């Protein structure tokens, strides 16, 4: 069974389901979890044509605060279930890369994450971080829907 489970979250209701699932698995296996939230960097380059710089630092600071709140909820849920938990917050335009890299750095043996279940044109245009993790991870990935 899995001993150290990475649980990425974006704060969504589906992510909450993945958190509950990871905690349940960790409880049965007497394992632990690692909560991860990948913060979004400021999406616009002040050097690009027609872009307005805005408050990039303010945006990124708030994004990091929100990410910290998300992993704090994981830590609280784990504490309530008596499951050891570590948390990580990163910043990236490519969350799937940070998910895979964090799993490696933290010696996780599995990833438990949500899928928003986008289909058709939405999936094509927006992509799927879960799909990318599935394609590139070299450890088991449990997808919760």
From TrEMBL:
What SUPFAM superfamilies is this protein classified in?
A: Adenine nucleotide alpha hydrolases-like
Q: Which domain of life is it from?
A: Bacteria
Q: Which residues form the UspA domain?
A: 1-145
Which Pfam families has this protein been placed in?
Usp (PF00582)
What family name appears in the similarity comment? Belongs to the universal stress protein A family.
PANTHER family in alphabetical order: STRESS RESPONSE PROTEIN NHAX, UNIVERSAL STRESS PROTEIN UP12
Annotated protein name in UniProt? Universal stress protein
- Source organism (scientific name): Keguizhuia sedimenti
């Amino acid at each position: 069974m899995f001993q150290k489970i990475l649980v990425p979250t974006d704060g969504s209701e589906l992510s909450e389901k993945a958190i509950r699932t990871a905690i349940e698995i960790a409880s049965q296996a007497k394992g632990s979890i690692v909560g991860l939230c990948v913060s979004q960097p400021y999406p616009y380059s002040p050097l690009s044509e027609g872009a307005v710089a805005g408050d990039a630092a303010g945006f990124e600071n708030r994004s990091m605060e929100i990410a910290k709140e998300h992993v704090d909820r994981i830590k609280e849920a784990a504490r309530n279930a008596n499951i050891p938990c570590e948390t990580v917050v990163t910043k990236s335009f490519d969350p799937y890369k940070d998910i895979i890299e964090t799993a490696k750095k933290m010696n996780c043996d599995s990833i438990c994450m949500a899928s928003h279940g986008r289909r058709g044109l939405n999936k094509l245009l927006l992509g799927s971080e879960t799909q990318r993790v599935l394609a590139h991870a070299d450890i088991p990935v449990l997808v919760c829907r």
